[in-house]
Amino acid sequence: MLDAAGLRAAVRAGEYAGPTAGLAPGFTQANLVALPEADAFDFLRFCVQNPKPCPVLDVTDPGSPEPAQTAPGADLRTDVPRYRVWRDGELVDEPTDASDHWREDLVAFLIGCSFTFERALQAEGLPIRHVEQGVNVPMYRTAVDCTPAGRFSGPLVVSMRPMRPDQAIRATQITSRYGPVHGGPVHVGAPGAIGIEDLAAPDYGDRVEIRDGEVPVFWACGVTPQAVAAASRPALMITHAPGHMFLTDLDDDRLAVL
User: Fold this and answer.
1) What residues form DSSP beta bridges with 9?
2) Which H helix or E strand runs over 35?
3) What are phi and psi for residue 61, nearest 5 degrees?
């Protein structure tokens, strides 16, 4: 599973259903959101208004499960390790195959993921604690509201990586080049300032160790649409399970602005 196509094949065959952080290095990972066509334009407007958490990489034609621009031949019904199915804002299923829930009017969005810039951070010797510990990245709902658009509104979700202050500065410099996959951090330190009460209790993903001298560094997260689903209650939304991303054929390095 060293490349995107190999990982997608393993997922489609039912041979892998876990988190994807650190897998297929160099290939861009993406969040999934699929909605009925009647809601798709409002969601696109929401993404345009909120480019930090929802940077769009690809949009499918209605009913098509193929992300033709980012992974020709792939199938978004089967090639994500684990899905979430939301109906009227309620999480009703977490299948490893979304075919039974797919409809002919669904429009799928692939949204940039912060896993993309982790290889660049590691190349600079910066810590990626969830990869070191072999767990899912911790993610938190914040008290920061996204800019509403049409029927969609809700809170910003962030991912967190602990670092020393000097490392946080370097990480900001590196990740700010990656605008299509969330860019630089949205907050450093003081989790209470953005409404996070307990770093040891993430809303999504797993707890990670925060060592002496480290501060939490927060990036906008593509799980934000799942919090928006709960707040806005669309009739149907299919997403990836947090940390279980779709692997595109895009080259991570091509998403960095020199």
Assistant:
1) none
2) strand 27-36
3) -70, 150
* Run of H or E residues at 249: strand 246-251
CA dist 253 → 171, 174, 180, 258 (Å)? 16, 12, 11, 10
Q: What is the pLDDT along the chain (258 residues), one digit of tens a residue?
A: 579 999 999 999 999 999 998 889 889 999 999 999 999 999 999 999 999 999 999 999 999 999 999 999 999 999 999 999 999 999 999 999 999 999 999 999 999 998 888 888 999 999 999 999 999 999 999 999 999 999 999 999 999 999 999 999 999 999 999 888 889 999 999 999 999 999 999 999 999 999 999 999 999 999 999 999 999 999 999 999 998 999 999 988 777 765
Which residues make beta-bridge pairs with 182? none
Nearest by Cα to 225 from 111, 119, 115: 111
- Distance of alpha carbon 247 from alpha carbon 101, whole angstroms: 21
Radius of gyration (C-alpha) of the chain in whole angstroms: 17
Sign of CA dihedral 136, 137, 140, 141: negative
Residue recorded with tokens 């991570």: 252
Contact 208/162 with Cβ under 8 angstroms?
yes
CA angle in degrees (0–180, nearest 5) for 112-117-119: 135
